[in-house]
Amino acid sequence: MIEVLRKIVQAVNDADDLTQALELIVHEVRGAMQTEVCTVYLKDRSSQRLVFRATEGLNKEKIGAFSLSIDEGLVGWVASRGEMLNLDDAMAHPSFQLVPGLGEESFNTFMGAPIIHQRDLLGVLVVQQADTRRFSDAEEAFLITISAQLAAIIAHAEVTGAAMAVDTPAEQVARIQGVAGSPGIAIGQAVYVSPTADLGAVPSRRASNRRQEMRIFRSALARVRDDIEVVAENLREELSPEDHALFGVYLSILDDSTLGGEVAALIKAGEWAQGALSQVMIKHIRHFERMEHSYLRERAVDVRDLGTRVLTYLQDENENREDWPERTILVADEITASTLGEVPRERLAGVVSLRGSANSHAAIVARGMGIPAVMGAYDLPYNRLGDKPLVVDGYSGRVYINPSRQVLDRFQVAVDQDQALSEELAGLRGELCQTLDGKRIPLWVNTGIIEDLEGALDQGAEGVGLYRTEVGFLLRDRFPSEEEQRLLYREQLEVFAPSPVTMRTLDIGGDKSLPYFPIQEDNPFLGWRGIRVTLDHPEIFLAQVRAMLKANEGLGNLRVLLPMISAVEEADEALALIRRCHEEVIAEGYMEGLPPVGVMIEVPSAVWLTGALASRVDFLSVGSNDLTQYLLAVDRNNARVADLYHGLHPAVLGALRQIVDAAHLKGCSVSICGEMAGDPRAVPLLLAMGFDQLSMSAINLPRVKKVINSLTMADANEALAGLEGIHSSREVIEIAEGLIERKGLDRYVRLNRDSG
Questions:
Q1: Which among 156, 284, 361, 646 is annotated as catalytic?
Q2: Do 8 and 110 sit in the same domain of this protein?
């Protein structure tokens, strides 16, 4: 069964479009199950009806011309209930409905399975037979398994089809859900940056100059032929005549009469050279991979190798792109800092990464630059984007492909509103952040690069609550020396002096891995990360802390923060190493005193150890992103479960109150950094809990200040008191947003509503 499933899924994956995918599904499933009929109904998003889209065994003239309501007939029964239906006498079922002309009168046996992708009903997969019998348990299992396996493929094909359509109705515009990486909305033109020499990641694109593309292709072929001939000559004495003859086979594959000719034909038809090569090579690679004979299957490796060699030379010819659109939406499999740097800043409007997380380096840099970004948009049909228009909604983590004029107009209004509000809020820069009744609350920023600090100063930040030192490590191809770190940290401290700068010691692991120090684990978020790594490698920790202490000389605004503390023993060991570093730098002639040292509360064990930790350190800082993730057991970077990740979850709020109370009982200050601190809906609740500082991305600071300066502590306390007995995130959000609306602040705050 597994092998049959694999073959069907692979065949459908290879389809060029949704229609071909559906035709393959009904053909392959009917053959695998040896039934007389297989049919697929898909739900139309605009009409919400189940459309007859593909069949083997029924009247194909009805394809696309016939539909059912969501609760009509046996197909509607399966769709509305979202469960399988297996009948040995379909006509006896009360929901049975005979459709004239469909041709199912003679088929008594019916089995249907819902096609569901991420809780969304896509359609129904049906098999039928003439003989009166009930499908077996094994057949039931096969159909439900294949429908689940094919759901993601169908969803992807639907999005791709919608993305390619012209004048798509607003309700049918292709929309991809990812993870919000950097807030804001960007409207622009997609530019996909392919990974180096990856045949499967080359987008289709119209050639601007066919002759030039053909010249580039011929040049690349010639260079590959030269390479193969050199290798063949070098190995002439090492190989048998039979093995050496394979090089001749390699060369023949590139001839005009074989694959080389197919590529040239596509270029002449208007495809750019890289796209033509990719399409031809992948078609033949898949052809070889599906062959039964092992020797022939292995030839797929040879074809891939040849294609990769040619693609490498083609990319060499195109590596210096200068025709970036005026409003470029940069799309890549995984955005890196160097990729961002390739686009002129004045032309970079937005960022979309198929992989990556809200805490990836690229997301951090994008936030620092104020560029809207969506990460983890793995369903994006990148190879079909061409130069199509995109809308990037960095608030909701959504990407809209080839949007209609109606959708573009709607988002342009949002862009204009954001711009107007930014200009209005700029006047708050010189004002103190305090409630209407005089409660002061310092607003700090989270930073990782010097550009962050410059933006933070423009927004009126009063300090740095979290400086991510790992960014300086990510930008190198080796561990930075102590002196290199000292210079970097000195620059950060000087920019903000005399205001405090909280430097977190190296926090790698989880979704942050150094290229020169890879950490491969099955469950990285519960593995070797944060303080666990640096305590196991004290040489890294000691060099970093010494660099921080030396950089603080004559400034005195350093605060040291320890990440991922889960036990008091870890805090004690780290504190002992910090004291040792201080003694060493004093011995070298530095005179600055020991700076305040704090720990991050970001794992559940630390919540219950808050009092013990507070008695050992000078301050605490709650990492709300990780704490929420660990408390709710939800990977915040996984788009599939993004709707389960709620900072305003009652359990999270309960933990935060417990942390503040325990810290203050020991006379220890406590701040909060992460997304919650920058969420204006959460801010009144955090004020009422008693947090001493809020630290956030600079872009969120003006809106948070506007909210705080418009409230009294009585308002905040009333909102927090209203949460007593509340057990759902939805109710918490209603209370938080209700306060924002009553105070007339909703125009400054993007509430938790679908923006598109």
A1: 361
A2: yes
